[in-house]
Amino acid sequence: MYDTVQEIFSEEKFFRYGFNAWDLSHLDVVSRLDILISKILEGGLSEPFHFACKYPGSYDFRPSVIEYDPLFLDVIREVGVIELLKENFGKGLALCHVQLRVAESRGSGYAGWHRDSYYTSDGAVGNIPPALKLIYYPKLSFAVEDQLKIAAGSHRLDFGSRFVDRFLIGTGALSEIKTITNDRNNWVLFDTSALHATCPVRNNKWSPRLIYTFLNSKLDREYPFAKKIAEYMEEHSHE
Ligand SMILES: [Fe+2]
């Protein structure tokens, strides 16, 4: 059994597929995180904490989980994500946003097939270089169901057209569609320039996910908690 993600990270798979998915359920810090998320989902949050709708079909924890409990930041240090990113993706990459989101049960996912960063004939849209996202889909007491689809390798296959993206998905030309569930391998680190889509929640009333966004630190100014996160990480970097 491994203690950190560095022990199981595959650079080659990341380059080839655009993501790595891990099972970290045996780690004590992840058990503590599960308890914390369960408690939040039970309700009874006191001001100023609440959930608010950003994308139809999903609700975001506000103002930020990092104000609610330091465990949300400690966990990614403890499992070795910060070190892994430093070693494999360069020192300029910083955690700028942490979002606990619940998706509600309905016929479609709250986000269809898309790239967070892409090119059009008018130029780049989204963050350049693209953000990396680490998403955790906790199992908790929920039924196992599909959560996220990623078109493996699509970060290397971009024709600069959203029409072509939709066409590629529709025709099955991108044959390696990988699905992340909230069971095993439910921590996924991915390149957000890859085509991805959220799956509809059907068997659960709610489905939680914890989303960490890593961005070149020069680009993180629009994220209101980026500075606080950077200070906390710096303060605790040697623990
Ligand atoms: Fe996205």
What does this structure look like?
- It is a single chain.
- The chain is α+β, with helices and mostly antiparallel strands and 239 residues long.
- The protein has one domain (22-235): q2cbj1_9rhob like domain (Jelly Rolls, Sandwich), CATH 2.60.120.
- 26% of the residues lie in helices and 28% in strands.
- It contains seven helices and twelve strands.
- The protein has helices spanning 11-17, 28-41, 65-68, 71-78, 81-89, 162-171, 226-235; strands at residues 19-22, 50-53, 58-62, 93-104, 118-120, 123-125, 132-136, 146-151, 177-181, 187-191, 196-198, 206-216.
- The strands form three sheets. The protein has a seven-stranded antiparallel β-sheet. A three-stranded antiparallel β-sheet has the order 9-8-11, with no helix packed on it.
- Helix 2 (28-41) runs antiparallel to helix 4.
- Residues 111, 114, 116, 192, 196 line the site of fe (ii) ion.
